[in-house]
Amino acid sequence: MPGAHARDADFVLEQVRQHTGWFARSLPMIASENVISPLARQMLVSDFHDRYAEGHPGKRYYQGCTYIDEVERRCNELARKLFRANQVDVRATSGTTANMAAFFALAQPGDTIAAINTAQGGHISHAKMGAVGLRGFNLVYYPFDEANMTIDAPLAAKLIRQEKPKACLVGNSLFLFPIDVRTISDAAHEVGARVMYDAAHVLGLIAGGQFQDPLREGADVMTGSTHKTLPGPQGGVVATDLPDTNEADQKFKKKLDSGVFPGTVSSHHLHHMAAKCVAFAEALDFGEAYAKQVIRNAQALAQGMHELGLKVLCEHRGFTQSHQVAVDVRAHGGGRHCAELLERCNVISNMNMIPGDQKATDPSGLRFGSQELTRLGMREGEMREVAGILHAAVAKGEAPDKVAARVSELRQRFQGVHYCYREGLPAHQLWEFLPVAR
């Protein structure tokens, strides 16, 4: 007998069905998203979802963790290998949670830290309105090289020596190029500060050896998201490769551990942990090839848009060395207008602040990511098609239904997930749900 609110459940099922079908005929280009592999997706609906396992393997506060412990041990082992680190915590439930955990180890409330301004591509968790503010840090911003879309490292080093912050955060939300971590870390360590590299967007590119190697370039800790260029489940990691040879580093590593549990996580979403384990194994086997293609695709997309007359940032640097492409669309109505227009064309992107903008809600830019289209099997030729689609919608004013038809035609050829063990299975499966109200 259906319950009184069974039709509400039917409503949810229908919305999920509609969403899944929409994304199966769209071009998903949000730079912070990706599609999970079929095998990893299976982990999300396993019995691991229903369980708790506070603490570390073999040292739990709950019984019933025999097999959970084995999976987590293997997950830790693969993570250490993938990120070339001697300590990786896979329990963080998001990139922001990973950042918050690291903040417990990096500084105390009232301490000064340095970061990138959100108006210049910094992440909201590094801002006063986000986790940094919640932790009670005083914040100073690095000088930013707008022409080259990166921290001005020499001036940042000068700032660090003047302000003497307790911690220096690097890593962007709009993240086109590697950062000069060495110059910043040399100055930070000179004044006794720790360096945190937020690899949320570029974690998969780092794991694939195609971006930079922060832990070898002077970062004391690297945080990241496991669902962007690293195409796994929603979640985060906290990694360090500091040696155990001195007391200060040992103490710092213990603080990182307790910052995750019990600092920011109780149950660490065991189904996500199992899916991370699969994703890490797949990244070790396929991650280098995937990262290389992601970057090639981003560069081909940028070049294609540039040749068609769109104003892609940083032409003089080859536009991008990551998965991201930034476009100045103020001549076409601005970022919000263009993002909403593209959504009607079934191209999913986001408005983004670019240098000179003052309002996050009315920016001049669009941000595109190549990582999900690459995961679906697209290569440079398809990126040129995508560039033409974007130009038709944004610059030529082609009718959204006509653009959407072009999108659907292209997308029909690319439905499977690649760079994983069960390659070719559908990314956006249209499940046949049985309505509850029946």
SSE topology sketch:
Layout: H1 6-24, E1 27-28, H2 38-44, E2 55-56, E3 59-60, H3 66-83, E4 87-89, H4 95-106, E5 112-115, H5 131-135, E6 138-141, E7 144-145, E8 150-151, H6 153-163, E9 167-170, H7 181-190, E10 194-198, H8 203-207, E11 221-227, E12 231-240, H9 247-260, H10 270-307, E13 311-312, E14 324-328, H11 335-344, E15 347-348, E16 350-352, E17 365-369, H12 371-375, H13 380-394, H14 400-411
How would you describe the overall organization of this protein?
There is one protein chain. This protein is of the alpha/beta class and 438 residues long. It folds into 2 domains: 7-34 and 286-411, Alpha-Beta Complex (Aspartate Aminotransferase, domain 1), CATH 3.90.1150.10; 41-279, 3-Layer(aba) Sandwich (Aspartate Aminotransferase, domain 2), CATH 3.40.640. 41% of the residues lie in helices and 15% in strands. The chain is built from 14 helices and 17 strands. The strands form 5 sheets. A 7-stranded mixed sheet has the order 4-12-11-10-9-5-6. A 4-stranded antiparallel sheet has the order 13-14-17-16. It has a two-stranded parallel ribbon with strand order 1-15. Strand 11 (221-227) and strand 12 (231-240) form a beta hairpin. Helix 4 runs antiparallel to helix 9 (247-260), helix 10 packs across helix 13 and helix 13 (380-394) packs antiparallel against helix 14 (400-411). The mean pLDDT is 94.
